[in-house]
Amino acid sequence: MKTLSIYIGILGMLLLAVLPVKAESEAEFRKLSKTYTLRADGSQELRVQKELTLFTHAAMNGLYGETFIVYDPEFQELTIHESYTRQKDGTVIKTPSNALVEVLPSSAANAPAYNHLKEMVVVHTGLELGATIYLDYSIVSKAGYLPELDVCCPVKELSPVKEFIFRLNVPAGKSVRYELLNASAKPVIAQGNGMKSFIWTLKDVAPRPYAYPSGRGNLGLVQAIASGMMPVFVASTWPGYTEAVKYLQKQFAVGNTSVVEGKVAELTQGLEGNPQAMRNAIANYMAGLYQLGHCNVSLQDAGYRLRPASEVITSAYGTQAELVNLDVTLQRAAGLEAEVAVCALRPSVDGNRGLATVMSLVCQSKKMPEKVALTGTEEACLQPFMTITDLQGKKLMLESYLGAKEARTIDTLEVKSDKLQELADGWGIVPLSDPTPVHSLYAYAGNTSISEKILLPRMVDCALETIVRLPEGMKWSGHADKEISNACGKVVFSYKAVKGGVKVTRSIRIDRQLQTPANYKELYALLSEWRDTNNHTLVVKKVSE
Asked: Which residues form a coiled coil (predicted)?
């Protein structure tokens, strides 16, 4: 027996010697450096340098096989300084010219006004497990294209970073405001050749989770920053945030007033004297019911520029910022009150914000649209974690009206043969719909525990009362009521027999938006109970003759 144990031990050591060690992550950034420079002539440079070692086939074939760089060739020049792969044995494979492919960014598809934008796809060649990708490129913006140095630079990547270096270079006499959120590193400051440099070095940066907050656009980043999960550098050479926002205000132009007035007349024909109906007609138009397309080019990629509202009307598409401008313009032309709300990150000092910290824009209306889903719901839910101002820099409070009417629902479900899922021996089941407002939280409760704080996109207070009318000859078999209550909220399921069927009352309330590893179990308990399909299913059976 002793000899057998020795053989097993030797075999185990041999297997450990020949089997590859399982990588803790898909890849690792040995070094990641980002340098933002404002030159004396007003031009700007962003330089990115990375060294990335691949550990898995997923990293090699999908996650990191290509690098995508968006720029505007009319005002910016892209230079690839170095691009090569060092294989595991030290062999260097330089990126060939045919592996540098220039395409139209997907965000600009079906948007002719932005077809001048380019996306350089760097296809990394010579990849293998253990290979290291080296890439060094810069984007230089002409003087005047960007009004000031504006930076919002998240730190974490999907893979760990051994060393993250962030640099700011500005003319020696230029004032710059900066802050590192969610980390405590201090900059090394140096001066020479008429320039002043600020250099931060972060070591062993943990990766961000794959289950990144799923907010629309940049709102997922707001969640990550507000929860403390994502360190981010913000920097600006604006005198203050108010000056930055006022610069943006100049972009919100009406354009050709006759085009705008013609569209308003078309949308509100016969609705004169009924402001709510006029607002609803404009809201329906903005919601895309008349083929008004949405272009995903970001405010930053557009150089903080917008087309006038009249151009958006005639082209039938717009960026998020352009659509907000159009919505406000149409409402004002119709005699309604509306304004632009600017939603930005909230550093510890207001003046540290610039235009790069603007995460979203919202049309704030005095007349709320009825039964029309517009942008603004997520922003309203996240506003405690952002700064909301008008285009003069005056602070605003977003109305959290969107989706509010979905919170309380009373309906009647007539169970016909196509709704009844029949089982054997006269038994059947009736599935009840799961309310939409809760769905957005499911992605945040996929595991029984979390290692970092998470910020939910919204709190929930949702109740449904459903009267289920059963087919003749069927009766309800009964269902026990349930109630779970804790510090995070409450879930209730109540079932009661009524004439001709069953009254089902379901309610869920999530009161805490910021979840920590210590209290997360309470959120998990509530959502696990809510997601249990048994609670949303009635069991019925045929009445015996």
From this structure: none
Mean pLDDT of all residues belonging to the chain: 88
394's tokens: 């005056």
- How far apart are alpha carbons 436 and 531 in whole angstroms? 12
Element at 409 (helix H, strand E): strand 408-414
- Tell me which amino acid residue 52 is: L
Which segments of the chain belong to CATH 2.60.40.3140? 27-237
Q: Which residue type does 220 have? A: G
Residue 58 backbone phi and psi in degrees, to 5: -60, -40
Model pLDDT for residues 134-191, shown as the tens digit of each residue = 999 999 999 999 999 999 999 999 999 999 999 999 999 999 999 999 999 999 999 9
Structure tokens at 113: 């006004």
CATH 3.40.50.11540 assigned to domain 27-237? The reply is no
pTM for the whole thing? 0.84
Topology adopted by domain 405-542: Jelly Rolls (2.60.120)
pLDDT band at 39 (very low <50, low <70, confident <90, very high): very high
Q: What share of the chain is helix, strand, coil (3-state, %, to 5)?
A: 25, 35, 40
The top-level CATH class assigned to 251-402 is alpha beta
CA distance 457 to 195: 42
- Are the C-beta atoms of 222 and 228 separated by less than 8 Å? no
Q: Name the token pair of 112.
A: 């002719």
C-alpha to C-alpha distance for 88 and 150, rounded to whole angstroms:
39
Q: Is 229 left (phi over 0), alpha (psi -120 to 50) or beta?
A: alpha
CATH 2.60.120.1130 spans which residues of the chain? 405-542
